[in-house]
Amino acid sequence: MRIPLELALPENYGVADILAFHGRDSEQVSERCAFVASELKAQSSQTSQSSFEKAMLWGGYPACLGIQFSGDTAAVVLAVDVSLEEDICAKKFESWRHELQIIVQRMLGLNQDVAAFLQLFSAHPDIGALILRRANLRVPLSASPFEALCWAVTGQQISVSAAVSIRRRFIQLLGTVHSGGLCCHPSPPQVAACEVALLRGIGLSKTKAQTLILLAQAIESGELALPANSDQPLNHASADALRAQLLSIRGIGPWTVNYVLLRGFAYLDGSLHGDVAVRRSLKILLGREEEISERQAQQWLTEFSPWRALVAAHLWAMHSDAVY
Length: 324
Fold this sequence. Notes:
Layout: E1 2-8, H1 15-22, E2 31-34, H2 38-43, E3 50-58, E4 61-70, E5 73-80, H3 86-107, H4 114-121, H5 128-133, H6 145-154, H7 160-174, H8 188-192, H9 196-200, H10 206-221, H11 236-247, H12 254-265, H13 276-286, H14 294-302, H15 308-316
Antiparallel strand pairs: 1-5, 2-3, 3-4, 4-5
Helix pairs in contact: 6-10, 6-12, 11-12, 13-15
């Protein structure tokens, strides 16, 4: 089944930011990106387009999401490895098309009110110049909150390159291959049934392996209730409720929670003061000689609520190799 969709993009939409996030793995096991710089487009007599493909489980079936960017439009196609009877297929098509629109809008950051953020802080003495350089910066989201959770746990206290390698092996170990060749990120049931020893074999520590399994089992049992897909970001109350649930799971700390709230749910007010790359960029931004402590970063970010996580994203963008 193929489900097409077309979305309008804001003016000067940052396609490169989206492709940088989804193209972190150069081996392209689960995602495949093609980026054509605007300068090259201007020189070409033919229309050039940037695009990416991502394998993902959809309704329990292997699927491949394809998004092609051209001008102010994103052409979306979801190819699901399923063959259904005609009457069932029609009902599924409409239901899945609606869900697809919500998920892609979230993944592309189209519901993030960056214009309001810019209006508030473009003249700020500390971050005004920084955000004006990337005025249309939006935070790309993972395809699902569970994928964001797995990445956050995997990436705790290690480099981005190391986390990418482990994530790749994680997907290859437990994922399902789509007919197009890309491998889908594992689902909670697949991870919940896994043994700690298997996850340790791909480079995860014992603690991280146990945490991933505990998370998946909590989702499966209903103990951890992830909010349903919505075209609206989390509000403060729902974010606090989810934060409390996540912090009750062994191996989950404040950095992991705030990262997941951002990359999994588009919650832009999580304080990422515990992030090493954020503090390193903040030190440079403020022209400090001494290191910035977590407490100092937390206090500095307080002024920017309810946009603290978006400020962190701008600090990440100062160093492309630090972007989680």
